[in-house]
Amino acid sequence: MGFTYPVTWERQAFPRRSGNESALELRLSRMHWDAFVALKSATVADDLLLESSRRYALLAGGFLDVTPELRLALKGTVLNRGQVPNVANQGVELRVPVKGASLGAVWHHGAPVGNNVDLALYQGDPTFFERFFLPETYPGGFAASVSLEGSLLTQGLVDPEAGSPQRSTQTGGAGALEARVKQGFWRAHALAYVRTLSFIQADVPGFPPYQAFMSDAETRAEVSGTLSSNYHLQDWGLTPGLLVRVTRPASLRNAPESPLFSDNTAVFQGPNLISILPAGEDPGLVVTVKATARWDLGAIAGVLAEVSYTHDPNRTLVEDDETGVSGPVFQPANAVGVNVLLQARF
User: Fold this and answer.
1) Where is pLDDT greater, at 117 or 298?
2) For residue 74, what are the CA distances in angstroms to 19, 102, 216, 333?
3) Which residue among 43, 127, 191, 200 is least packed, with the fewest CB closer than 10 Å?
4) Half-sphere exposure of residue 296, counting CA atoms within 13 Å on the CB side?
5) pTM of the full predicted structure?
6) What is the pLDDT of residue 261?
7) Strand-pair category, 273-276 with 301-311
8) What per-residue confidence (pLDDT) applies to 256?
């Protein structure tokens, strides 16, 4: 679901599956439109029946070329993730229904503009190796594309404030705006996206697992903006570039009287990627600067590399103080990283 990777979802429909998710898709493609319907299936643990049962997810969608340069696309899904395990252990049947849709629009002009070398934006993308090692073409002239998309989903989770196990519907959403420009051998990319905390945790699902947020909890969405530029040196097959990204991470702070985290703020860098800030502290902006490079060695091999500097003031570890009480403590905010990917082509 979704179109641009940072705001895609339902990569895994059934978190507690006991095997792979098999799928069957029927697609009809015409010159100016496309439509599909798909069925995903997996065997999921059922703690109420103490056995595994098969669950299904229905997906449908398609696109329409309104003009030669403008395309509209729509996807929708309905599924049931199965029983809530901790409630099922109490002998109560409570399932997790999910409904959602993603709508996107793309305008393009000229030759396709490929992806930049920003490996962090594509972690877990199953199409990464298929798309990113395809050599970029530079036919000359001007080319550009702009895409806008939004996703909305609802999910039934356990109400944390109910006296007995009850379902609470939680809504999540995300949106992304991406622009790409190519002039001769020069390219530029811009990406801005927003993800609510409930959207980030949708595939887990919930936080804590299978639980909705408390009604008085303070949640903040993740907001991120990225700018990058690179230039292709045709004689060497080398494309060096520079990237800058600023992100306000998603966060959760429960009411002070809540036993969960007390007055601490939980910062989410991704699904269940959490750091707990010291009491009373607020999340800070995360700034990343990267030097990137792509090197195409003809039909033999391809290399993707990046050297990054990140300033993340939200890094913490749980340590004991002088009285032996454990609590989150800030860690150095600055970090340097290196990533290199090599693909051999046969």
Assistant:
1) 117
2) 29, 6, 34, 40
3) 127
4) 15
5) 0.89
6) 47
7) unpaired
8) 58
HEC states along 254-321?
CCCCCCCCCCCCEEEEECCEEEECCCCCCCCCEEEEEEEEEEEECCCEEEEEEEEEEECCCCEEEEEC
Environment class of residue 237 by beta-carbon count within 10 Å: exposed (0-12), middle (13-18) or buried (19+)? middle
Residues belonging to the chain: 346
pLDDT tens by residue, 177-236: 999 999 999 999 999 999 999 999 998 898 888 999 988 889 999 999 999 999 999 888
Q: Report the Cα 134 to chain-centroid distance in Å.
A: 23
Instruction: Give the chain's end-to-end CA distance (angstroms, integer).
Output: 32
Residue 339's closest CA among 310, 315, 314, 303? 303
Q: How far is CA 79 from its chain centroid?
A: 19
Long-range contacts of 310-317 (CB under 8 A, 24+ apart): 310/286, 310/334, 310/335, 310/336, 310/337, 311/286, 311/287, 312/284, 312/286, 313/284, 313/285, 313/286, 314/249, 314/267, 314/275, 314/277, 314/283, 314/284, 314/286, 315/275, 316/275, 316/276, 316/277, 316/278
CA distance linking residue 151 with residue 153, whole number of Å: 7
Query: What is the average per-residue pLDDT within 105-118?
Result: 90
Ramachandran category for residue 80: left, alpha or beta (phi over 0 → left; psi -120 to 50 → alpha):
beta
Q: How far is it, in rounded angstroms, from Cα 207 to Cα 198?
A: 8
Bridge partner residues of 150 (DSSP): 103, 175
Closest Cα partner for 71 from 112, 37, 120? 112
Tokens representing 320 are: 């004991």
Instruction: Answer for the pair 145, 180: CB distance below 8 angstroms, yes or no.
Output: yes
Matching residue, tokens 């299978």: 210
Can you say how many angstroms the Cα of residue 328 is from the centroid of all Cα atoms in its chain?
Answer: 26
